[in-house]
UniProtKB/TrEMBL annotation:
The chain crosses the membrane at residues 96-115. This is Uncharacterized protein. Keywords: Membrane, Transmembrane, Transmembrane helix.
Length: 262
């Protein structure tokens, strides 16, 4: 985290800023995603630390509420005397309070460290890329196209993506173009030496028409853009996926919320 962010965030949370400074800080957060995320994380850590303190306070209050008052008769002075007997806090509670407080603090520190850590593009890509399920067998009048399509499907299922690309290409006149382009795009990403630019070209061909693979092509294209170093274009596409609640929208949101190393 940026050191200047640390200072500003702590001053804002603790109420040390003037009204004008607070307004400027809030405006700044709206235009600075990293600052806004770090503020939320710091605020959550503060909340967890406060919760640890409340645990101990609650136990003490419950202890005081359990104080027992009894009345005894003082025969020597003929007076009724009220004697307050303080309840004894069980030993296991005494031991549990500091442990619970430490545990909550540890969770806060751990979560803060995890969420504030950054990942590489390769980390994010590896976490989210998976080969799309193989296509089914489609019946067509063009027997040559049918043979090539079925062969491509088998090769694709067996992770032989380079050979599958060639077969998919030969089947273009026999199956819907968008289906061929989509599986070629995924194959270019999954082959031993991925070609993300070719993958993007094929997904663009899918996205050029309205079809059943439109949403899937958008998701895979965003990953290909990300891996090829076009982060701003990838983010724009991911935001579209999230906004429209399209295919893989939750994973798209996860990527957008991940701090990626430059």
């Amino acid at each position: 985290m940026n050191n200047s962010y640390d200072i500003e965030i702590e001053r804002f949370i603790s109420g040390e800023m003037t009204s004008e400074e607070s307004r400027e800080f809030e405006t700044k957060m709206k235009g600075d995603k990293e600052l806004s995320e770090n503020y939320k994380l710091t605020l959550a850590a503060h909340q967890l630390i406060q919760d640890a303190g409340r645990l101990e306070l609650k136990a003490k209050l419950e202890h005081f509420e359990n104080e027992d008052s009894t009345q005894t008769f003082d025969s020597e002075n003929s007076n009724l005397k009220v004697v307050t007997q303080k309840g004894v806090l069980p030993l296991w509670i005494k031991r549990a309070i500091p442990i619970a407080a430490i545990l909550v603090l540890f969770i806060a520190i751990y979560q803060f460290g995890i969420f504030n850590s950054s990942s590489t593009v390769s980390d994010v890509y590896s976490e989210h890329f998976e080969v799309y399920s193989p296509p089914g067998v489609t019946r067509h009048n063009n027997e040559t196209a049918q043979v090539n399509w079925e062969a491509a499907t088998v090769l694709y299922r067996n992770n032989e993506y380079e050979e599958a690309i060639e077969r998919f290409s030969n089947a273009e006149n026999g199956v819907p173009d968008f289906q061929v382009f989509f599986y070629k795009g995924v194959s270019y990403m999954a082959q031993n030496q991925p070609d993300y630019n070719m993958a993007i070209q094929n997904f663009d061909s899918v996205l050029a028409t309205d079809n059943d693979y439109h949403q899937q092509a958008r998701w895979y294209k965003s990953l290909a853009l990300l891996k090829s170093g076009k982060q701003s274009e990838a983010y724009a596409l991911l935001e579209t996926i999230v906004a429209g609640k399209f295919y893989k929208n939750e994973e798209a949101e996860n990527i957008l919320n991940t701090k990626i190393k430059e």
